[in-house]
Amino acid sequence: MLSLEKLSERDLDFVVETVASQRRDQEMVKDIVRDKADLVEVMLDDERLFRRIMDEGAWVRISPYLFFTILLRQARKDLHGGYTVERWGQSYRLPVFDGSQVATLLEGGDVQDYLAGMLTSFTRVGSTVVYFHHRGRTHRRSFSDMDMDDMVGLSQGVEPEYRFAFFKRIADIALFLTGVFPEYVTAASVGVTNGPRLSGRRTRTIEEYQNDGRQFCLMAAECAPAGSADVALLGKIAGNFDLARKPLNLVSERYMPLSRFQWFTPSL
After folding, report:
1. Torsion-angle region of residue 109: left (phi > 0), alpha (psi -120 to 50) or beta?
2. How many helices (H) and strands (E) does the chain have?
3. Within a 10 A sphere around the Cβ of 4, how many other Cβ atoms?
4. Is residue 155 a contact partner of residue 161, using CB atoms and an 8 Å limit?
5. What gap in Å lies between CA 254 and CA 87, rounded to an integer?
6. Is 63 within 8 Å of 204 (Cβ atoms)?
7. Do residues 144 and 125 lie in contact, with contact meaning Cβ atoms separated by under 8 Å?
């Protein structure tokens, strides 16, 4: 389900003025749909939103969350009855007829909303400085929240009740890199260094990122607060990790092949 609280006033203005462009009472329309997620959901499926952000570059006016939500909803439509493309080595791209499975995974809205939030989180990279004592000396080390190895290291040094956020972030890094920058993952795994350096000191293949992502999704689910919706959702993503990255591949390669470098910085 769409998270209305993540939409700004400018987002709502953009949606209403695009979808209800012929109406003169747009402020009234906005007031009506403001707290009604089901109505906003219907409006977000209007293809005029997708065309506008693609043709006019109007994405500069809206939040990353709305931008990625629109793209993922379009991906769900495009994947119905179709196929995805899987990279095989550096040169080969093979069609995989799992488009309907991917679209079905997105239909409930929970996975789709999770992916939109995850992409949004990578538009800003944060870092943490940790001081520690070793052999009588004080040491300083920076940790990036886009570096899988950094996050693994931090997760090992915190109390169990704080591990959920780290485990979830590690799974998100695996999903993000294999979804948005799969060509660089493949290149790095065979020793090609052209392009941005990916996060982490250990080189991983796409399959290794997927395995790590599944593992940490399940670990995060185990650490989630009792009764949290994250338990079922993370379990669902873990069980469909390969499918969950496919709409990200489509968004990255077809909808934003150049602008992804404006949104994300894969190198640190």
Report:
1. left
2. 14, 4
3. 15
4. no
5. 15
6. no
7. yes
- The model's pTM: 0.88
Task: Give one DSSP letter per residue of 46-60, joined into a string.
Answer: -HHHHHHHHHS-GGG
d(CA 184, CA 233): 28
- Single-letter amino acid, residue 252: S
Domain boundaries, the chain: 1-62, 127-263
Question: pLDDT by residue (tens digit) across 216-225?
Answer: 999 999 998 8
Q: Which two tokens stand for residue 42?
A: 């219907």
Q: What are phi and psi of 153, to 5 degrees?
A: -60, -45
- The 10 Å Cβ neighbour count of residue 121 is 17
Give the integer Cα–Cα distance in Å for 136 and 100: 59
- Going by C-alpha positions, the residue among 98, 78, 216 that lies closest to residue 148 is 216
Average pLDDT over residues 26-54: 90
Quick one: tokens of 205? 């293949």
Q: Name the helix (H) or strand (E) containing 244.
A: helix 241-250
Contacts of 59 (CB under 8 A, 6+ apart): 53, 67, 259
96-122 residue pLDDT tens? 899 999 999 999 889 999 999 999 999
Instruction: Give the pLDDT confidence of 142-180 residue by residue, as tens digits.
Output: 778 888 999 998 898 888 888 999 999 999 999 999 999
Reference 168, options 112, 229, 118, 111; nearest CA is 118
Closest CA to 163 of 219, 214, 208, 122: 219
